[in-house]
């Protein structure tokens, strides 16, 4: 077994297992679940079903020299069917990078009353002697065995007071107080990641399902059910600890809401930062930070078969101290025990020093991150103010146009003139494509008053219903009809939608992108007293893009009209 000086931590977690309500469980149930995962990875070899897997042993298949499965146990204060300590090591080559080797260590300790502590650490390293381009570090992922354990109906997995799940949990309205209590609970032992929703789209900015899968066993992922949840949580949390409007935040254990400086520990990414970096990049940064730099392991934990061997040595030394008959032998055992104690003390000191240095490094990283975020925030504010200034200029020009006395010297005399006038009055709300203007010129519809009312209702009422966040009950079609008296249809009949030639009439290019103009406002049913205005609600420009304004577009039923 090589000395792994260059090994890199890939994933680490630890949690407690207790019998699920109404379930009677045993130590063997834990080990059987781990063995099922190994079989899933290696194949159903007969050797994996033998007693050594439970009592301790080693297996290397002849056909795969770099595959190893090894177990160790110490009965200690337990029994033969439920030892105090048990551990597994699984090594195998990487499927993607042939010269990379993987190792997963799992440790299980009996806590009594049918409860167990579960440790897991996965590392990887490049084989000695390899010379070549360094492969990129893989994105940390929770091994499948963790999700298997968390999904098992036999167990309830907890990290202190926090219940662990391999999928995100919705934070519903009315749960704000309970969420605050979980954040400050001193018994919580794992991070909680909160994913809020973007106020405009109502959607999360990152993939909660993916985060929960990658962080299974190391953290819990909570997703706000609605944007209203964000406002509720804001009421319970001080400003520095909030998470809303698309922000994602990682709340570490022991949140101190009364100490504003503590907010620095709880890393967050605001909506504009996620947009700049991309959702996937932010997700990867969070996962790497939580599972590769984890300090969750207990100091006296049994994380690997090496730790179990160490526990066996400690117990044996204790036995020898008690049973040795010769004084010199007792003295030798005593000296060896003192020597090991000194080594453990040195190890503890070095571990504390490493932890101290890690803390200093993390603090420096946090300060750099904060400086980057301040610069990003200043740049964002600069761009925001520039945008506002530009918007103000546009609005000023629009107001000047609307107040131009020449604009309404004469009333529009045709549908085409109504289109031009509406575009001049509400250029930021409604846009007419060249095809729409051409259809207005060719239209047989001559009721200028109705055309004015229809297009104005779209620019004023429909725009507010879609983009202005105006509240309404029922459907959009019902709300528009109640406010304007004009019918709105968002789709076509099944027969029309099946006809590719007919649906092609409802597609056109706008600023380099293809848009769908199926939704339409309608008046009348027979020409020349028939008006159809087909549009696309352009979310980026926050404008109604009209692609057709005039006579009825061909439909499946057109062939039956006289």
Based on the model shown, name its key terms.
elongated; 20% strand; Glutaredoxin; 4 domains; alpha+beta; 562 residues; eight-stranded antiparallel beta sheet; 16 helices
Q: Can you give a write-up of this model?
A:
The protein has 562 residues and is of the alpha+beta class. It folds into 4 domains: 149 residues; 132 residues, 3-Layer(aba) Sandwich (Glutaredoxin); 80 residues; 146 residues, no CATH class. It is 41% helix and 20% strand. The protein contains 16 helices and 20 strands. It has an 8-stranded antiparallel β-sheet with strand order 2-3-4-5-6-1-7-8, with helices on both faces. β18 and β19 form a beta hairpin. α1 runs antiparallel to α3, α11 packs antiparallel against α12 and α13 crosses α14. The longest helix has 76 residues. It is elongated and about 120 Å long. The model has no long low-confidence stretch (mean pLDDT 85).
| Strands, count | 20
Largest sheet at a glance?
8 strands, antiparallel
> Approximately how much beta-strand content do the residues carry?
15-25%
Uncertain parts: none
Query: Cα distance, first to last residue?
Result: 87 Å
Number of domains: 4
- The radius of gyration computed from the alpha-carbon positions, rounded to a whole number of angstroms, is 34 Å
Structural class: alpha+beta
What's the helical proportion of residues? 40-55%
The overall pLDDT, averaged over residues, is 85
| Overall geometry | elongated
Strand numbers in spatial order across the main sheet: 2-3-4-5-6-1-7-8
How many H/I helices?
16
């Amino acid at each position: 077994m090589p000395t792994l000086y260059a090994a890199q931590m890939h994933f680490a977690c630890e949690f407690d297992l207790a019998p699920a309500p109404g379930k009677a469980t045993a130590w063997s149930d834990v080990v059987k679940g781990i063995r099922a995962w190994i079989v899933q990875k290696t194949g159903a070899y007969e050797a994996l079903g033998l007693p050594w897997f439970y009592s301790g042993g080693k297996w290397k298949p002849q056909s795969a020299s770099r595959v190893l499965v090894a177990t160790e146990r110490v009965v200690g204060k337990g029994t033969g069917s439920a030892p105090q300590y048990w551990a597994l090591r699984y090594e195998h080559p990487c499927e993607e990078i042939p010269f990379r080797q993987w190792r997963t260590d799992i440790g299980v300790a009996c806590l009594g009353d049918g409860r167990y502590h579960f440790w897991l650490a996965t590392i990887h390293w490049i084989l000695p002697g390899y010379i070549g381009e360094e492969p990129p570090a893989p994105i940390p992922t929770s091994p499948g065995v963790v999700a298997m354990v968390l999904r098992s109906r036999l167990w309830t997995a907890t990290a202190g007071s926090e219940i662990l799940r391999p999928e995100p949990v919705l934070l519903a309205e009315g749960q704000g107080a309970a969420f605050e209590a979980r954040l400050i609970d001193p018994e919580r032992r794992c991070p909680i990641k909160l994913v809020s929703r973007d106020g405009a789209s109502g959607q999360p900015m990152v993939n909660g399902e993916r985060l929960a899968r990658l962080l299974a066993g190391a953290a819990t992922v909570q997703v706000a059910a609605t944007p209203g949840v964000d406002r509720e949580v804001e009421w319970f949390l001080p400003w520095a600890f909030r998470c809303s409007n698309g922000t994602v935040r990682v709340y570490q254990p022991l949140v101190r809401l009364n100490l504003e400086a503590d907010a620095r520990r709880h890393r967050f990414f605001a909506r504009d930062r996620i947009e700049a970096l991309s959702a996937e990049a932010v997700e990867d940064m969070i996962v790497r930070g939580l599972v590769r730099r984890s300090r969750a392991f207990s100091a006296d934990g049994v994380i690997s078969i090496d730790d179990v061997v160490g526990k066996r040595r400690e117990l044996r030394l204790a036995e020898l101290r008690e049973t040795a008959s010769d004084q010199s032998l007792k003295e030798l055992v005593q000296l060896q025990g003192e020597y090991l104690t000194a080594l453990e003390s040195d190890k503890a000191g070095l571990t504390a020093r490493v932890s101290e240095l890690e803390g200093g490094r993390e603090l420096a990283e946090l300060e750099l991150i904060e400086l980057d975020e301040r610069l990003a925030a200043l740049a964002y504010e600069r761009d925001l103010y520039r945008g506002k200034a530009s918007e103000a200029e546009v609005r000023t020009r629009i107001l000047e146009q609307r107040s131009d006395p020449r604009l309404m010297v004469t009333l529009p005399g045709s549908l085409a003139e109504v289109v031009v006038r509406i575009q001049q009055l509400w250029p930021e709300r409604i846009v007419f494509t060249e095809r729409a203007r051409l259809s207005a010129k060719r239209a047989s519809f001559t009721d200028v008053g109705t055309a004015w009312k229809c297009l104005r209702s779209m620019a004023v009422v429909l725009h507010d219903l879609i983009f202005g966040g105006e509240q309404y009950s029922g459907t959009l079609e019902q709300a528009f009809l109640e406010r304007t008296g004009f019918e709105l249809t968002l789709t076509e009949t099944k027969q029309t939608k099946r006809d590719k030639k007919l649906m092609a009439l409802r597609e056109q290019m706008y600023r380099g992108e293809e848009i769908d103009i199926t939704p339409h406002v309608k008046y009348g049913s027979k020409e020349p007293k028939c008006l159809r205005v087909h549009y696309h609600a352009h979310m980026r420009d926050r404008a109604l893009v009209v692609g057709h304004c005039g006579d009825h577009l061909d439909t499946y039923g057109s062939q039956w009209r006289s």
